[in-house]
């Protein structure tokens, strides 16, 4: 047995388990080990092998970037590569994203990174943002900021008092689930931009359609959020595809007229 220095794997694992609200017993069952072993790891009395660290991290749904950090804390090399998206080895990923974005037309869709920065978007998203302040569309483009900034889509959103907090709460939840100082700052910035929070008798929680006016048309959109479920590359695992879909037939017809594709 070895004693681990403060701030190493023991503290990191305990922090993730607490964040996920999982008991030592439940974590042990998920990872195929014993509660005693988990307790020894968290107290620094035992350092697990590389495979056990990965099993524990996977059981806690730790993002692959942070799994590398856990491995480093225990003295192991990172297990998950991190490549730029333009790396030739990720060509199939880029091709898949391009197909999805194009195939979703005429409806808007974007691919963002873990901070909500735009990686790619289709012509539908270009149509939505054609009147946005060019400064907001200068890389890195924060999609949540584009949605809620006065120079962005905010003036065009009819139900801004509901939609804004839908966006703020989602960014805040992500910053809690996968801690990031940048996400926390973004959540605070967006909260300051949002109108006062109001809950009407018709409030539907997360099921909030985006209702906006653009190009002389009224659009009602719902959204889906997807990610690569089996990615082992850090960059790919952190990508998110947000696709907007028409909430009614009139919106579908309007988007077909507005988007040139």
Automatic annotation (TrEMBL):
InterPro entries given in the database record? Cro/C1-type_HTH, Lambda_DNA-bd_dom_sf, MLTR_LBD
What domain of life does the native source organism fall in? Answer: Bacteria
Q: Where is the HTH cro/C1-type domain?
A: 13-67
Which SUPFAM superfamilies does the record associate with it? lambda repressor-like DNA-binding domains
Q: Which Gene3D superfamilies match?
A: 3.30.450.180, lambda repressor-like DNA-binding domains (1.10.260.40)
Which Gene Ontology terms cover its molecular function?
DNA binding
Q: Indicate what this protein is called per its UniProt record.
A: Helix-turn-helix transcriptional regulator
Annotated source species:
Dactylosporangium aurantiacum
């Amino acid at each position: 047995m070895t004693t681990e220095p403060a701030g190493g794997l023991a503290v990191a694992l305990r922090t993730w388990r607490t964040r996920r609200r999982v008991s030592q017993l439940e974590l042990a069952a998920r990872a195929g080990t014993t509660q005693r072993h988990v307790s020894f790891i968290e107290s620094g009395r035992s350092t697990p092998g590389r495979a056990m660290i990965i099993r524990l991290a996977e059981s806690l749904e730790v993002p692959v970037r942070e799994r590398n950090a856990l491995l480093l804390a225990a003295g192991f090399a990172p297990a998950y590569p991190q490549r730029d998206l333009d790396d030739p080895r990720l060509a199939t990923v880029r091709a898949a994203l391009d197909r999805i974005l194009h195939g979703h037309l005429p409806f808007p869709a974007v691919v963002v990174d873990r901070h909500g920065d735009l990686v790619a978007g289709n012509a539908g998203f270009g149509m939505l943002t054609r009147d946005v302040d060019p400064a907001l569309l200068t890389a890195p483009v924060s999609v949540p900021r584009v949605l809620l900034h006065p120079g962005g889509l905010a003036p065009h959103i009819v139900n801004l008092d509901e939609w804004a907090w839908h966006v703020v709460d989602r960014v805040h939840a992500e910053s809690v689930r996968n801690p990031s100082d940048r996400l926390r700052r973004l959540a605070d910035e967006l909260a300051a931009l949002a109108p006062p929070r109001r809950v009407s008798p018709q409030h539907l929680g997360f099921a909030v359609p985006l209702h906006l006016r653009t190009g002389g048309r009224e659009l009602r959109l719902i959204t889906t959020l997807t990610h690569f479920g089996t990615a082992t590359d850090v960059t790919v695992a952190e990508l998110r595809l947000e696709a907007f879909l028409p909430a009614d037939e009139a919106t579908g017809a309007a988007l077909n007229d507005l988007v040139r594709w």
